[in-house]
From TrEMBL:
Name of the protein described by the UniProt record: HTH gntR-type domain-containing protein
Keyword Transcription regulation: yes
Organism: Weissella halotolerans DSM 20190
SMART domains recorded: HTH_GNTR
Transmembrane segments: none
Keywords for this protein: DNA-binding, Transcription, Transcription regulation
Residue span(s) of domain HTH gntR-type: 7-75
Amino acid sequence: MEFKGTEPLYIQVAKYLEGEIFSDKYPLGTKIPGVRELSADLVINGRTVQSALNKLVDEGLLETKRGLGNFVITDKARFNEIKHQKIEKMTQSFIEESLTLVSSAELSRIFLSALEQSKGDE
């Protein structure tokens, strides 16, 4: 994982872990590595990792089982809802930022073209 200087490290770690969870590296109900293991793997402070995990717990993606660690939630409907909300938020941010550069018609054309290209990649 490469870190960027533009946003807090714990947010970057939380996003990284979200990606790992959403890509099914850690399926529903799976225990994720502990703070020590993650901090060693990512070569960062354990407090930073703990802050990232707390963020994911607060967002409802992880649940803490006292004495056992952190687990991906088991509720598939809730999991899909969280995933959908993340995608909506990313899309809205992309649209808002893009509209500062091009018109909505041009953005629509660019988006549809990119979508068609990605269909060919499947």
